[in-house]
Amino acid sequence: MTSGFLRRPYSLPTVGTNFSRNLRQLEDAYFFMRSQSQTRKSSSVAHPDKGLLSNRERTPDLSVKQTASDLKEEFFDGLCKFARYSKFEARGTLRSGDVLNCANVIRSIGFDRDEDYIAAAGVSKKIKIYEFAALLDDSVDLHYPAVEMSNNSKLSCVCWNSYMRNYLASTDYDGTIKIWDVVTAQGFSQHMEHQKRAWSVDFSQADPKKFASGSDDCSLKLWAINEKNSVSTIWNPANVCCVQFSPHSTNLLVFGCADNLIYCYDLRHTQIPWCTLAGHGKTVSYIKFLDSESIVSASTDNTLKLWDLKKANSDGFSSNACTLTYRGHTNEKNFVGLSTLDGYIACGSETNEVYSYYRSLPMPITSHAFGSSDPISGTKIGNDDGNFVSSVCWGQKTNMLVAANSAGSLKILQMV
């Protein structure tokens, strides 16, 4: 499905838009890009593999010098994509009797493979599956989940399987990893090797029988569906807060930790990290791949960072691999979500807002105030003191963003 999100023509920004308000930052971004281009021709020796992993078939030719015209075209393309949108518009709102219940904070949301359903999970100890189309229907007075599954502990993360559509993985505060069959609304396997809270779980897209989990017990565990015991464990100096497989490689896995570092592993050689990325000042809470060679990370240091894995070193910390830092949202203590789509980045904020960025520019495109509202009428009630956006997820086919906040509200947003 293709929507206006992708079809909308580029347009140049005018005075009074976010372009003019951020002219100084745009200028800084341009000169930063110029400085980066001067070092690219020598970066091919930064990693001994020359490519990302030794078996990569498509290795970029980093020895080709970027011309001035290439630089201008790249910057202008990023500027156009930054300027093509100016705000988020709400397309749907979850209307539920549980909304605004403090025991219903949504910690994780996600689309299923075909983006027909959304899974929402959190401190209510329940996974609720909603029909996406129903949430877009304003005529519905109350939305009831199509499927509801109960867990023994508060839930921290859910992840759908990209191949087996009805399979959903979850992690919880007891450290248990479960695989659920959404069709039967039952868990068919559980894995209890973690000794403390498990923060994150991710299925491999390249090998959907494989999944990984990260925990406060300072371990990253690799699992296989239909095998009760983990197939491998990577011990780490600090709590593992987020994990993601590369969608483009069977062997590349990254995870972020409470020691402010990001660890990248070649799963064929798990004795030591393939590289370690340093630059955040506090806990790394989320990691997402932007493409096969770039990742974006979120931290409670109030920033997102873009990393070029081609610049990573095998030895020591790769601080030079950070190519851009995004600022604007507020994030000092909570996990507020992170999601990407075609170079666009969305995250939450402790100001109870959703923020969006484009990959090549450091300032936000726009933000959307979440607010608290009556679940039936939609009328805004109370104030937002203490509330924050707790999770975001972009639909890769629908091009809409689902966001949830700490008051238990859920919205569907679209950039326009």
From TrEMBL:
<dbReference type="GO" id="GO:0042802">
    <property type="term" value="F:identical protein binding"/>
</dbReference>
<dbReference type="GO" id="GO:0005634">
    <property type="term" value="C:nucleus"/>
</dbReference>
<dbReference type="InterPro" id="IPR015943">
    <property type="entry name" value="WD40/YVTN_repeat-like_dom_sf"/>
</dbReference>
<dbReference type="InterPro" id="IPR036322">
    <property type="entry name" value="WD40_repeat_dom_sf"/>
</dbReference>
<feature type="repeat" description="WD">
    <location>
        <begin position="148"/>
        <end position="190"/>
    </location>
</feature>
<dbReference type="InterPro" id="IPR019775">
    <property type="entry name" value="WD40_repeat_CS"/>
</dbReference>
<dbReference type="InterPro" id="IPR001680">
    <property type="entry name" value="WD40_rpt"/>
</dbReference>
<keyword id="KW-0677">Repeat</keyword>
<keyword id="KW-0833">Ubl conjugation pathway</keyword>
<dbReference type="GO" id="GO:0016740">
    <property type="term" value="F:transferase activity"/>
</dbReference>
<keyword id="KW-0175">Coiled coil</keyword>
<dbReference type="InterPro" id="IPR044630">
    <property type="entry name" value="SPA1/2/3/4"/>
</dbReference>
<keyword id="KW-0607">Phytochrome signaling pathway</keyword>
<keyword id="KW-0539">Nucleus</keyword>
<keyword id="KW-0808">Transferase</keyword>
<dbReference type="InterPro" id="IPR020472">
    <property type="entry name" value="WD40_PAC1"/>
</dbReference>
<dbReference type="GO" id="GO:0009585">
    <property type="term" value="P:red, far-red light phototransduction"/>
</dbReference>
<keyword id="KW-0853">WD repeat</keyword>
<feature type="repeat" description="WD">
    <location>
        <begin position="191"/>
        <end position="233"/>
    </location>
</feature>
<protein>
    <submittedName>
        <fullName>Uncharacterized protein</fullName>
    </submittedName>
</protein>
<dbReference type="GO" id="GO:0009640">
    <property type="term" value="P:photomorphogenesis"/>
</dbReference>
<feature type="repeat" description="WD">
    <location>
        <begin position="277"/>
        <end position="310"/>
    </location>
</feature>
<dbReference type="Pfam" id="PF00400">
    <property type="entry name" value="WD40"/>
</dbReference>
